[in-house]
Amino acid sequence: MKSFRIILLLSLSLFVSSCAVYDYLFSINTNASINKESFVWKSDTTDMVIFYYEKGSSAEKKIEGIKKSTLSDINKLLTIIHVDKYDNQLIYFLVESRKRMKELIGYEINAGAFPMQNAVYAVYGEVNATGMHEFNHIIVHNLWGNPSSKWMSEGFAVYSDDNWYSYNLHPLSKYLLEKNKIIPLNLLSQKFNSYDDRISYPLSGSFVKYIIEKYGYEKFREFWEEGDDALAKIYERSLSELEKEWIEEIKKSNSSNIDYKL
Description:
This protein is α/β, with parallel strands linked by helices and 262 residues long. The chain is built from twelve helices and six strands.
């Protein structure tokens, strides 16, 4: 299944994304979503998240499991970023389909994150777009600020899930290497939106996984805050040197069981 992920651009022709961080250009009115006439919401409130889901929906039938996995994902993320607690309450809207999503917010996406409102919108039913990815965007962007580049933001969000379409990141990246689909990191960092997200997202996630596990969380956070231009200073290596190290690391993985559609 193809997935089209973009940060909102000005051209309406690009509003077909499956997941995006939208607060760069506009915010969303969560009260308007709650009061939307064509939606009959049920809600559950926990210490961290208010869940909104439609009466009779797939989400309602599985809400206890969704709540459990969502809270587990958020706690795992807080551990990853070395934070004990996220003080803002999160809002989670779950709809049955991309069509219903478009009726709710005007855009046909699988999932979207709105950091200023601490709100995540996701499809659960037609597809399952729940998971840690969108909460990573909200919590990390609010605690660390916006990164200087999209590849860093999406790479860290993919890393926090530690998989892409249920495939482990390093084996999937090795598979892409074997299929001659590797994108040079200097191009990925500069032209992220120009590439097929079935390739750009897992590669970015795999690279972020490598540099965090090899060089530590603190250096990655510094990289996030200072941007691509500071990479050589922070890691005492050029991007091309880090890329060579990463390629050697993913070559150690076993990609024999991967059947990934490109």
